[in-house]
Amino acid sequence: MAPSSNLPSFQRASEAASFLKERLPEILKAPRVAIVCGSGLGGLASTLHELPRVEFDYASIPYFPKLTVAGHAGKLVFGLLNGQVPAVLMVGRAHYYEGHSVDDVTFPVRVFKLLGIDSMILTNAAGGLNPDYMVGDVVLINDHIFLAGLAGIHPLRGPNSEEFGLRFPPLSDAYDLELRRHVHQAWNRVIGTDKSKLHEGVYAFVGGPSYETRAECRMLRQLGADLVGMSTVPEIVVARHCGIRVLALSLVTNKAVFAPIPRGDAHILQGKSMTELDAMLQEGKANHEEVLEAGRSAATNMQKLIVQTVANIFNPSS
Ligand code: HPA
């Protein structure tokens, strides 16, 4: 689980970055982009060319958090995306709900900074709160609501790491506009059809691991969120603190349920059997298997989109 150490994060991250650099061939020592693959999106690693490619289990890297959740492998994969752009992929990430601190969840971002990364792409599976979103849709995140952060469960709490950034980093334009323009261009090039459209929206971070109640979904929607999920935001905050430009993409794996739960004496329940009542309550209920399955089937679109986006950003002529 969480690696405990009292060393400042700069020292820990420096040690992890040196560990990786010593084991990487010259061409992969200075990756241009880091990509965090969310639930079911690890297939992106297969788009990296075979040679050169170097993989590290998180467990082997100093201070890296160890994962505990089913469906999330834990490895760092270095390789050339499109055969050209040196990249590092995180296949599986640590979540706060596993018991990791927000400091540990965001530790890899600081290691990336010390490897020289200046752009990051984060992906995740999320619940759709915006009624226009369908399961399988892709949403480019353009803002977030970090309720836990506002309440003080925040990765930058404590003495500021001056080596990484300012005490009070602004987040009003956290999701890079220029990079988002590249994603729209990439979408039009490799996916755009009349039927599917690339959404943009606001992501609300929740601690998990339980999925939200109906009342919580209504509250988050009223607060202005389009998506809800259990990751990404802490990493975004730490990336922005150290000046990394970020893109974040959600795959909608389930739609939130808003309809209030019926009263026990509601008219519509009259004469219904327990089986019928159960079936009614199953409608729209989120479950982890469904989230993984939706991730698997829509993942190829997301992969194509990311590969083309990276090409647009780093090799504009391709
Ligand atoms: N809520 C929170 N996290 C999620 C969801 C959800 O509905 N779907 C996928 N991750």
UniProtKB/TrEMBL annotation:
Residues reported in the UniProt entry to bind phosphate: S39, H72, R93, A94, H95, A125, S231
GO terms for MF: purine-nucleoside phosphorylase activity
Catalytic reaction annotation: a purine D-ribonucleoside + phosphate = a purine nucleobase + alpha-D-ribose 1-phosphate
Biological processes, Gene Ontology terms: nucleoside metabolic process
Annotated pathway: Purine metabolism; purine nucleoside salvage
Keyword Magnesium: no
Enzyme's top EC category: transferase
Record-level GO cellular component terms: cytoplasm
Highest rank taxon of the organism: Eukaryota
E.C. designation(s): 2.4.2.1
Record family assignment: Belongs to the PNP/MTAP phosphorylase family.
Subunit structure: Homotrimer.
Its biological purpose: The purine nucleoside phosphorylases catalyze the phosphorolytic breakdown of the N-glycosidic bond in the beta-(deoxy)ribonucleoside molecules, with the formation of the corresponding free purine bases and pentose-1-phosphate. Cleaves guanosine and inosine.
Name of the protein described by the UniProt record: Purine nucleoside phosphorylase
Protein source organism: Aspergillus heteromorphus CBS 117.55
